[in-house]
Write a structure and sequence with these properties.
It is an enzyme of class 5 (isomerase). This protein is α/β, with parallel strands linked by helices. 38% of the residues lie in helices and 17% in strands. The protein contains 10 helices and 16 strands. Helix 2 packs parallel to helix 4 and helix 2 runs antiparallel to helix 5. The two termini are 28 Å apart. The structure holds 5-S-methyl-1-O-phosphono-5-thio-D-ribulose. 5-S-methyl-1-O-phosphono-5-thio-D-ribulose binds next to helix 2 and strand 9.
Length: 335
């Protein structure tokens, strides 16, 4: 099953807000529906929202075929639906570049991005599994954060693709899924995907991660990214930085897995990245029930920045960059 696809003239997604209880397909036929789905995280994860952005431009090309101003506004609305993951703006720009060639060319470009992400996931799984095996030896126990599985891509995943590949090789002892407050992508989505794959896992509250590492219950941390900056700084779901500090204190590898489409050489470092703040309500409530006084204020950065000095390696679909050995992302740009 694909997380997102183009089906009979519209975008279909698995509604991630309904998981793990309900597997519901949503059909998005207008730009407004697609943007709302991205904003409320019905479709989420950097590669998946990149694909959503590209397919959204394909929707816009049809919806605003006779309205150039409406089309320009729609493309801008899609591009800015969420600010932090580089994939969204990048894919929207790429697909919008085909608008002069007509709606069919636009759709073909969006579908190319979808297919590239599917192929990337397979390659990341293999490269990452080889790296983890070389760093950790036989049957490691891995901790992950947020959701980096098929739900965050189209199929396969990024960091979870590595876990799936290790499991296929019978080379994974089990996973700790960090729950990922406030929206519980780890507890709801990663646990759901690991269970379906038959991988043994335990869910842990986010704050337990560094302690589990200190207590010797985790052999490596493996997670994804929403943007990897030119200097190797990693912008990912809030809580990532704490796991990186925990990994450093425990002396275990901290490995980031993301496609080249998430590497942003135009952004020099994490300081330059706009971090989405999703407002107080997500923090002061949990699964729809209040968990703080009604008048509590809250701060809700959806992402944080892990300095490159804490990252052991970055695995993309093309290469493994060993930051711990002084390697950098360099000027490499995929074809
Ligand atoms: O807010 P989300 O759920 O879209 O955040 C997603 C993440 O932070 C993932 O870790 C990241 O996109 C990598 S997924 C392949």
């Amino acid at each position: 099953m694909r997380t997102i696809d183009w089906v009979d003239g519209a975008v279909e997604i698995i509604d991630q807000t309904a998981l793990p209880d309900t597997t519901r397909i949503l059909r998005l036929s207008t730009v407004e529906e697609l943007v709302a789905a991205v904003r409320r995280l019905a479709v989420r994860g950097a590669p998946a929202i990149g694909v959503a952005g590209g397919l959204g431009v394909a929707l816009a090309a049809r919806q605003f075929a006779d309205d150039p101003d409406g089309l320009a506004d729609a493309v801008e609305l899609i591009r800015t639906a969420r600010p932090t993951a580089v994939n969204l703006a990048r894919c929207v720009r790429r697909v919008a570049g085909r608008l002069p060639d007509g709606p069919e060319a636009v759709l073909a470009e969006a579908l190319r991005i979808r297919d590239e992400e599917i192929a990337s996931a397979e390659r990341m799984g293999r490269l990452g599994a080889d790296l983890i095996a070389s760093l950790c030896g036989e049957r490691p126990r891995l901790l992950t954060h947020c959701n980096t599985g098929a739900l965050a891509t189209v199929t396969g995943g990024t960091a979870l693709a590595v876990a799936f590949e290790l499991h296929r090789r019978r080379a994974l002892a089990g996973m700790v899924a960090s729950e990922t407050r406030p929206l519980l992508q780890g507890a709801r989505l990663t646990a759901w995907e690991l269970g379906r794959a038959g991988i043994p896992y335990r869910v842990a509250v986010d704050g337990a991660g560094p302690f589990l590492m200190a207590r010797g219950e985790v052999d490596a941390v493996i997670l994804g990214a929403d943007r990897i900056c030119a200097n190797g700084d990693v912008v990912n779901k809030v809580g990532t930085y704490a796991h990186a500090l925990g990994a450093r204190a425990a002396g275990i590898p901290f490995v980031v897995v993301a496609p080249e489409s998430t590497v942003d050489l135009d952004t020099p470092s994490g300081d330059a990245v706009e971090i989405e703040d999703r407002g107080a309500a997500e923090v002061t409530s949990l699964l729809g029930a209040a968990c703080a006084p009604g008048d509590a204020d809250a701060v809700n950065p959806a992402f944080d920045v892990t300095p490159h000095s804490l990252v052991t390696a970055i695995v993309t679909d093309q290469r493994v960059v060993r930051l711990d050995r002084g390697e950098g992302l360099g000027a490499y740009r995929p074809a």
